[in-house]
Design goal:
mainly alpha, 2 domains
Amino acid sequence: MITVAVSLFLALSLPGASANDSVQPAESAPLLIASSSHVSDSATLADLTQFSSTAPILAAPATLVNPIIKPVKPAKKSELPGVLAPRSWLVMTAVQHSAATFDAWSTRRSISSGRGHELNPLMKPFAGSGAIYGAIQLAPLAGDFLGRRLMNSKHPTLRKLWWVPQAAGAAGFMLSGAHNMQVASH
């Protein structure tokens, strides 16, 4: 802010800076005349803003540089945990949600055949309508969340087991769907 004010003052004090040269200052106001040259204005501005022409502003003095500290190199993609896993995680997510949809479809089919009924008390209110397709997707979402948390865990063993919740959920939905198909066909 000070730099702007000083620059403005210096720019206005230069001869010819006024837009209207015919206007005279009031009689009671003291007249300030600044005589300066371009070289002295630059030097004054440089002194006021404290810029050094020999070194950049953000450069550290040579005495502060420690030769013992080595620069840290960025980690390679293969060294980062979970870099290749997101694609696998997405595949497992699709498998688990597809298996849940198959379970919902087979449940509706077994109920509409008259031979089956919903045993899960949480899904029972949705079993007679198409809302079962949306309601059944909540369990795979929980498995996806847990798998993603395991994938990004700080513990190396847990990072290796990220796929277990999704695989277990998909297997459970597939077994339930296969059972529903057997009930519907008998």
